[in-house]
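Anyone? Bumping this.
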Amino acid sequence: MASPPQRRGRRGGKRSSEAGQNPHMHVPYINRKIPPYDLLDEESLIRIEQGAERILAEIGIEFRDDPETVRLFKQAGGKVTGVCATAWNIKFEPGLIRDLLKTAPPQFIQHARNPARSVQIGGDATVSAPAYGSPFVMDLDKGRRYGTMLDFENFVKLAQSSPWLHHSGGTICEPTDIPVNKRHLDMVYAHMRLSDRAFLGSITAPERAEDSIEMCRILFGADFVEQNCVIMGNFNSTSPLIWDGVSTRGIRAYAAANQGSIHLPFLLGGAVAPLTMAGAIAQNLAESMVGCALTQLVRPGAPTVLASFLVTLAMRSGSPTFGTPEPATGSLVMGQLARRLNLPLRNAGSFTTSKLPDGQAMQQSMMSMMSAIQSGGNYILHSAGFLDGLLSMSYEKFIMDTDVCGALHAYLNGVKVNDDTLGFDALAENGPGEHMFGCAHTMRHYKTAYWDSGFTDDLPFETWSESGGEDGMMRANRQWKKRLADYQAPPLDVAKDDALKEFIAKKKASVEDAWY
Amino acid sequence: MASPPQRRGRRGGKRSSEAGQNPHMHVPYINRKIPPYDLLDEESLIRIEQGAERILAEIGIEFRDDPETVRLFKQAGGKVTGVCATAWNIKFEPGLIRDLLKTAPPQFIQHARNPARSVQIGGDATVSAPAYGSPFVMDLDKGRRYGTMLDFENFVKLAQSSPWLHHSGGTICEPTDIPVNKRHLDMVYAHMRLSDRAFLGSITAPERAEDSIEMCRILFGADFVEQNCVIMGNFNSTSPLIWDGVSTRGIRAYAAANQGSIHLPFLLGGAVAPLTMAGAIAQNLAESMVGCALTQLVRPGAPTVLASFLVTLAMRSGSPTFGTPEPATGSLVMGQLARRLNLPLRNAGSFTTSKLPDGQAMQQSMMSMMSAIQSGGNYILHSAGFLDGLLSMSYEKFIMDTDVCGALHAYLNGVKVNDDTLGFDALAENGPGEHMFGCAHTMRHYKTAYWDSGFTDDLPFETWSESGGEDGMMRANRQWKKRLADYQAPPLDVAKDDALKEFIAKKKASVEDAWY
């Protein structure tokens, strides 16, 4: 097959900036003006909630390597049975975990070092953050390779440059060129130095969680941190039905410091969760609620976030599949369950299994992302860059996804209905058959009525073709390079910067490098 | 910029067929199991409805070149004012048009020549049909060129081959190699001969509408046609606020024959509709209601479909934009309005302005298509192949879009909640920490739990890369060729086929070719 004839060009339509003509839409986070979508009826929701309670009461959760967490749950009424010297099964009477969640705030502010960029987590707020956790990065020039600290910093810069993300995220990609036991310091510093938005801290070891929080004390002041949420950790259960000590110790560290934590089961159906979505949702609810409940035992009122990550499986190959319809519907139900619990929700994102930022990638991403939005998801990690089934962070897809995040600002604004927007005068001014290009209503609204994409190509075919006939990947390739070239670091107090560097240097010098 | 290294291959992952492992999902049309989404509150909906009534009462609709339609509306209570010798303005008291719609059926069956493929239009039914009306076609080998009858037939075959479309559509592309005054005969015949699904007839001239219906009388029998809907016409108003005689005469022809009609304003905001979405929706409602009402004056109870096509404008270039967020929200509101009117709705589709079936194309398509689905849209024209702002029908995008249509079968099934799907036993069988690959629940459900795409690539990166590293466009390019090669025509009664051919030959011989 010959090369597609349309794909010969190098140049193409020019765009000024990602912001386009949408400055009126710039906000620190989205306050949704449209209601979330309710997929299931009350009876079905109750059955799923009862399913979660039954899992907790009859099978229980296994806790490993963290006697203090076991002590806390036992004291709260959990029935503890020893599994081995370092593992305990705890069963919870129906309702026990839900009762513990009553002290958790339904919404809270995560403060950014730039106060204008602090975000609300929960309620009507939608906060978008880059994808998280890929070992690889990809771009069209160099293909797929292990992520480095340079890549990490590039993505923090690209996120900071986009008006359509609200949060700097966490481990945007693994900086594999930095020792495993020290990279958290460089990652947290990059978020602090190169972005002025809120971010996630380390969770890979309890002492790294403590380091992340300590760096926040330097940046924000210890008193401020004691009273306010300035960092969050994103913790995974070890599904099915295990909370490992590395996670629970980290959760306790964040909660003790009054900082936020997200409690995420990674539920690959048929592997670590029931294949059928109702069962996976019940399990998700059970595992995530238990993580959230632990925070309240450590410090009642500590900010905590319910989370959902529902993944299907290609049964023929055993590969995980992303952006498929069943997790989309499951995410919608998770939104309903989070509202009934009165907890903020982390949900879905721009998922895909595609290995290129192509049609498949964006189709799957939208199936997934629209479910996050419709579900009322409050914190959308994985909003930008996700490719290759979470294994690769893509520079080009990052550009495409942030443009979608921008469009969602308009989508979540909904349809405003008043005399002005009903625009009777626009029709009446000239009457039937007459265009409205110049009418007063059009002149009044043309700058703000529509989302103006900084990425999509809307030119006529001939214009597009003559200017190079680029596809979306090529445009995105040019855009991320320009965005990086144009990037300017937000100002940071020199004394704080020096103190952070000193902390990092001391920490790094105090232990040998570890590479696994 | 160098060619992307991943894009060198020719072969790649193999798929058996578009059907994948989803035979349990094959249905003549989708009966949605999830509720539509309500975006606006009651008060806002009433204001939009009042806005539509005000347009009808104070500005009125202009009717051209069809005195009989004017007579019918005058008799029904419309206030007629002459505009010129061939044009009349009619104003309608608030509520008049809505009253006329009370005889319209909330849902009806459009019969296919294969009774197993008849579709319900309205209620909980979702019916997907190919895109409609492009002058150009595109594929990766030959690029963009004017559509021909061969292309038209190819798309009918591709649609018929897909289990995920439910309807053969209408003018899938313009067969520009056939005279304008005769191509409707060949198009209707192609739908009848190459597909056994329901389809749309001609609307470009009243006599062509009559020909389409007459051919149905040959295929279905005149008595059957008199009693049942077997064909529909898709009619456009001439926005703003005009119904032209070519459309109204055609509408009357379909209604008189008890056949279906769809009443579609094409509302390009800022050009032929207010820029602000509330106003465009009110105008859309007004124009479409009037078309529907005309059918009820001709023949009370005739099947009729409310329709919506909301398009934004790139204000910098004046180009229409498709797949943007505002029309998505507008479509959701149109769904609410249609339900309040108790009428079936044609809504949105897989829209895009991209000139290639790339990431932009599928991102915009999904923004648009998910709004059609969430709105409760009943008849989704433009479900497959739409590219280039409706100017081109794409062979590759057709494949991508039909795969999405398949995924929507799973999405619209929602989340089934019962003891079996809650899957407690799957978790209890082995307990915490143990995978579920072999458990009884997994074995019972693995064939039917998940949508199994026939298009997306879910393989690990290495496998994908070693087998050629194709992007979605290349896979789609191979798929449509294979699908066409494998196509088999559904059987058709020889006598009927001969009668159809004879009718067409006579009609063609009776007039000179016309090329405009």
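Late reply, but here is one note on the structure posted above: Chain B has three domains: 42-97, 105-411, 415-452.
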